[in-house]
């Protein structure tokens, strides 16, 4: 505090002192004159009596001096002047560091948002989340509401368990709230104890009444999120008590608004409203028991996590056994599969985001490693440049050291200059973060991109501090200490050219490590790019270019609507055919599987008895360009209940019937009339599942209907006509999406695109930085060796020889670095192969290409300084000696 | 922090303690302060007038004095120094320390020849 006050005061004090001394002299002179002394004499006498005015003023000023601050200010001023003078150096150093910092901070911000940020609830650390997977496939098998209710009764380690049904691509994802004419919101059905157990208060109104979720009189009540309340109702409290329609035509009542900042338990979705799970019964009669839910719990205080985990596992095992015993219709395989499920409890501190975390956790850490490597390369570059620069200033520094300037003082000055560089770069990097975060999030689903909370917090700050600290250490401190040590040695020996060793080991090391990191990044980028290419070229079974999917009203539609819309779409010029289908598929993300047993057979113990189901409208196969390889497609008259027919895919035909013809066989009572080509169902990566298509029957009302049309026109050309055709058909539901199947297919490659595109950028950046580093190191080395080169030229060496010699010298660290880089990628090949498709992590073509690119770039970067050196005039070089 | 402009004929801190003592009697500006010190010491102490100012700056920085610009009785614009509460306290301890020291020195000086 005092320091700051003095700093502000000393300028004023300086002026005061000056004025005061002047006044003193005047008074003295006046006194002497009054005593009869002539004026000129009096002036002299007054000055004599006073002493040296300048040195007294200085002494007065010295009182206020703060040596450290003053030195720092002087150093900063010097550093600024220096950076202004060497703009090219400053631009390269600052921009390469800024890019590295920005990329690191952006990736960390996304990691923080997706994986680290705790839920804004009371004591989030005490929350746990339950999960369950099949042992054989590793696929998640969600808990059901009945199991949740049983777990509540049979466990004793939890304050409470809550059930949540919000997403995960089930058919009941979200709902449509219609306060004033249709608006898509993100909703969640939750157990009535949801807010109490999580410890989320209400900003207005109340939460749910603590009723038994099983009971028939579950409230038809809705709690809004604070954000949604503000956005949609402008924070109007009178909305509480208002009726709203959350699903179908059942009226609900808004009872409260959740505390500000609480956006639900999903890190990647922003929930707009919650309503009780018990209301499922109102709309779906008996389906509550089997309703899929996510279960979270809050540990009782003092109960260790391991104990709670064991408690829940024991309870789940007992529940599963009871359930299997109560299902006499299951065969042995199904029973065994059910009983061997892995049930686990993990921390619920950061909420849930199962799909996004499963898909992106490892890629994000891979990106984090890549950007850290880029930053290290940038640091090595700047460190090398600074080292070279310090060496260039060695005479100045040597003189200062010789004149008694403290080594610590000189180090401080060098560090200040370099720290200024880092400070500017950090500001630049931070400024890049919003753009970089948006870029990364553009690969995530749109809902997640807006829901993920990327605001900076204490963890972000800590990350920045750690990053800056590391950079200061690498970029600033090490070169500074090193060069002054070399200088002291130089002065002791008394050589004129300073003590830097002729071939700087540090430079060679820096160069080799830069090359190693660049090669590793290039190889990884190459692998990801080729993976993406492989997936894009993959035969998906349908034509990605000509199929357009249209979603009405968020997917909710009835047979009547669908049968009106599809023919209307067919009337659009340029549209060859149109159809509709339900239960997702065609890369819709979700999946509907059901029992598929050949009539009259009891499948063997190991046989799978389920298949993916798609209900399709007329002309589905021709519209989606899925070819029929045997039998026929559906035709008029196939619709249930009049007929019971099915088309199965090749995989199913092969697995169920082998070489025998499936035509004429019956599965689940349905006659197989055709076999369709395999198509990718939910993801391009996964091979086609067993699939059974059935025609849409009458009296059909589904929440996930899509319309498909076949056309060579672009989405932009089709959008207007599609909307008009639907209105003309007398359908009032709004069109919520028009997408090409190609775009949807590409969206399922989000992770691959993220990796391929970002890794390419980082690989390129690393390559450029390494080349800058090589160029700089080479120029520096050449400049130091002007004498030697001049001498050799004078002695008759050819230019080609000089260039060749210099390039070979730098070839060694480059080659060593490249080797180390390849070794590094091979070391993580097992990890990498998980993200690859259609090639190995040790793919020689990719590795060869990476090395070739780097080798060429390095040769170009090294050639120019070498050529410049070989053009040295021997006379000038020798005269300098 | 000793300045190289500290008069050699006074021991460290002597000027400070005198300044504080004089200002305790009445607030004064620089010129008047010099006159008062010389007058009070019956011109026995020859203080270089200018050397007063770094001392005043030091005391200001230490918070023992505060200064205000004003107009003197002779109608000049002068900077008048006042003793602060901290200055008063400091003076008391310094005076007693000074007396202790003087006593010690006198006793040594009073030693008879062996």
Mean pLDDT of chain A: 82
The percent range for helix content of chain A is 40-55%
The main sheet of chain A comes to: 11 strands, mixed
* Strands side by side in the biggest sheet of chain B: 1-3-2
Number of strands of chain A: 26
CATH topology label of chain B: Arc Repressor Mutant, subunit A
**N-to-C CA distance of chain B:** 40 Å
Based on CA inertia axes, which overall geometry of chain A fits?
globular
Structural class of chain A: alpha+beta
Give the count of structural domains of chain A. 5
Quote the beta fraction of chain A.
5-15%
Number of helices of chain A: 28
Residues in helices of chain B, as a percent range: 40-55%
What is the global morphology of chain B?
globular
Largest interface: A-B, 25 and 25 residues
Write down the Rg of chain B: 16 Å
Q: Give the CATH H-level superfamily of chain B.
A: Winged helix-like DNA-binding domain superfamily/Winged helix DNA-binding domain
Question: Could you explain the architecture of this structure?
Answer:
- In chain A, helix 5 (87-116) packs across helix 14 (407-441) and helix 5 runs antiparallel to helix 16 (458-493).
- Chain A is globular and about 130 Å long.
- Chain A has 881 residues and is an alpha+beta fold.
- In chain A, the strands form 4 sheets. In chain A, strands 1, 2, 3, 6, 7, 8, 9, 10, 11, 12 and 13 form an 11-stranded mixed sheet that branches. In chain A, strands 14, 16, 17, 18, 19, 20, 21, 22, 23, 25 and 26 form an 11-stranded mixed sheet that branches.
- In chain A, a hairpin with a 2-residue loop joins strand 9 and strand 10.
- The radius of gyration of chain B is 16 Å and the shape is globular.
- Chain B has helices spanning 14-25, 30-40, 52-61, 85-109; strands at 28-29, 65-71, 77-83.
- In chain B, helix 1 crosses helix 4.
- Chain B is α+β, with helices and mostly antiparallel strands.
- At the A-B interface, helix 1 and helix 3 of A face helix 2, helix 3 and strand 3 of B.
């Amino acid at each position: 505090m005092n320091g700051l006050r003095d700093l502000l005061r000393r300028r004023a004090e300086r002026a005061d002192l000056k004025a005061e001394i002047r006044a003193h002299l005047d008074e003295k002179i006046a006194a002497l004159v009054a005593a009869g002394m002539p004026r000129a004499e009096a002036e002299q006498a007054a000055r004599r009596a006073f002493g040296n005015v300048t040195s007294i003023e200085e002494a007065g000023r010295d009182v206020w001096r703060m040596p450290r601050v003053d030195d720092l200010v002087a150093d900063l001023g010097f550093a600024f002047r220096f950076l202004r003078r060497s703009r090219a150096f400053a631009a390269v150093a600052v921009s390469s560091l800024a890019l590295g910092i920005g990329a690191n901070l952006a990736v960390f911000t996304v990691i923080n948002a997706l994986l680290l940020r705790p839920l804004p609830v009371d004591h989030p650390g005490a929350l746990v989340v339950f999960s369950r997977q099949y042992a054989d496939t590793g696929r998640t098998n969600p808990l059901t509401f009945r199991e949740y209710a049983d777990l509540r009764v049979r466990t004793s380690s939890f304050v409470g368990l809550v059930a949540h049904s919000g997403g995960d691509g089930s058919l009941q994802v979200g709902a449509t709230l219609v306060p004033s004419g249709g608006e898509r919101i993100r909703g969640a059905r939750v157990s009535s104890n949801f807010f109490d157990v999580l410890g989320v208060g209400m900003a207005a109104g109340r939460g749910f009444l603590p009723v038994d979720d099983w009971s028939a009189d579950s409230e038809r009540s809705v709690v809004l999120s604070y954000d949604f309340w503000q956005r949609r109702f402008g924070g109007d409290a009178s909305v509480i008590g208002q009726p709203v329609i959350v699903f179908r035509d059942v009226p609900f009542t808004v009872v409260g608004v959740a505390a500000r900042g609480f956006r639900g338990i999903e890190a990647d979705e922003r929930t707009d409203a919650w309503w009780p799970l018990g209301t499922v019964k109102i709309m779906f009669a008996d389906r509550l028991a089997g309703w899929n839910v996510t279960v979270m719990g809050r540990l009782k205080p003092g109960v260790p996590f391991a104990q709670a985990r064991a408690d829940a596992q024991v309870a789940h095992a007992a529940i599963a056994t009871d359930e299997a015993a109560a299902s006499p219709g299951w065969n042995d395989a199904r029973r065994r599969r059910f009983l061997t499920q892995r049930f686990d409890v993990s921390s619920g501190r950061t909420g849930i985001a199962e799909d996004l975390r499963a898909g992106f956790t490892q890629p994000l850490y891979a990106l984090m490693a890549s950007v850290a490597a880029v930053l290290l390369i940038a640091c090595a570059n700047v460190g090398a440049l600074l080292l070279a620069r310090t060496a260039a200033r060695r005479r100045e520094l040597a003189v200062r050291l010789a004149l008694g300037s403290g080594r610590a003082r000189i180090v401080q000055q060098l560090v200040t200059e370099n720290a200024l560089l880092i400070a500017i770069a950090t500001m630049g990097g931070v400024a890049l973060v919003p753009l970089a975060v948006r870029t990364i999030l553009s690969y995530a689903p749109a809902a997640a991109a807006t829901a993920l909370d990327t605001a900076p917090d204490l963890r972000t700050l800590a990350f920045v501090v750690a990053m800056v600290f590391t950079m200061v250490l690498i970029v600033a401190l090490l070169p500074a200490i090193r060069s002054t040590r070399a200088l002291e040695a130089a002065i002791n020996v008394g050589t004129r050219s300073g003590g830097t060793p002729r071939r700087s080991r540090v430079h060679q090391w820096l160069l080799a490590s830069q090359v190693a990191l660049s090669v590793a990044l290039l190889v990884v980028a190459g692998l990801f790019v080729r993976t993406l290419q492989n997936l894009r070229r993959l035969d998906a079974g349908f034509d990605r270019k000509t199929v357009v999917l249209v979603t009405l009203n968020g997917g909710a539609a009835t047979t009547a609507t669908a049968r009106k819309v599809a023919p209307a779409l067919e009337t659009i010029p340029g549209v060859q055919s149109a159809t509709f289908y339900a239960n997702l598929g065609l890369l819709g993300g979700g999946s509907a599987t059901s029992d598929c047993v050949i009539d009259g057979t009891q499948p063997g113990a190991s046989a799978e008895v389920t298949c993916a189901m798609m209900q399709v409208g007329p002309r589905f196969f021709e519209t989606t360009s899925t070819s029929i390889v045997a039998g026929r497609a559906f035709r008029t008259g196939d619709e249930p209940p009049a007929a019971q027919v099915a088309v199965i895919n090749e995989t199913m035909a092969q697995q169920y019937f082998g070489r025998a013809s499936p035509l004429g066989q019956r599965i689940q009572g349905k006659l197989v009339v055709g076999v369709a080509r395999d198509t990718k169902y939910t993801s391009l990566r996964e091979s086609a599942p067993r699939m059974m298509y059935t025609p849409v029957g009458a009296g059909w009302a589904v929440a996930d209907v899509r319309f498909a049309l076949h056309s060579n026109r672009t989405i932009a050309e089709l959008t207007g006509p599609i909307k008009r055709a639907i209105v003309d058909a007398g359908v009032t539901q709004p069109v919520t999406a028009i997408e090409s199947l190609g775009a949807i297919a590409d969206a399922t490659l989000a992770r691959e695109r993220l990796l391929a595109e970002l890794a390419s950028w980082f690989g390129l950046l690393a390559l450029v930085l390494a080349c800058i580093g090589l160029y700089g190191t080479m120029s520096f080395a050449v400049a130091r060796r002007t004498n030697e080169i001049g001498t050799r030229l004078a002695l008759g060496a050819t230019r080609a020889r000089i260039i060749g010699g210099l390039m070979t010298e730098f070839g060694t660290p480059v080659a060593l670095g490249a080797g180390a880089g390849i070794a590094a990628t091979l070391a993580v090949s097992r990890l990498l192969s998980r993200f690859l498709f259609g090639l190995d992590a040790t793919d020689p073509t990719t590795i060869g290409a990476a090395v070739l690119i780097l080798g060429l770039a390095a040769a170009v970067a090294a050639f120019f300084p070498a050529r410049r050196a070989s053009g040295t005039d021997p006379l000038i070089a020798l005269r300098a000696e | 922090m000793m300045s190289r402009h500290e008069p050699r004929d006074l021991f460290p801190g002597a000027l400070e303690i005198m300044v504080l003592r004089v200002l305790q009697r009445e607030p004064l500006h620089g010129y008047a302060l010099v006159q008062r010190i010389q007058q009070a010491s019956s011109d026995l102490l020859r203080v270089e007038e200018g050397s007063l100012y770094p001392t005043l700056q030091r005391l200001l920085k230490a918070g023992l004095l505060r200064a205000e610009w004003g107009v003197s009785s002779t109608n000049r614009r002068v900077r008048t120094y006042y003793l602060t509460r901290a200055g008063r306290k400091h003076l008391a301890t310094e005076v007693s320390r000074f007396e202790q020291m003087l006593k010690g020195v006198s006793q040594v000086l009073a030693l008879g020849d062996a």
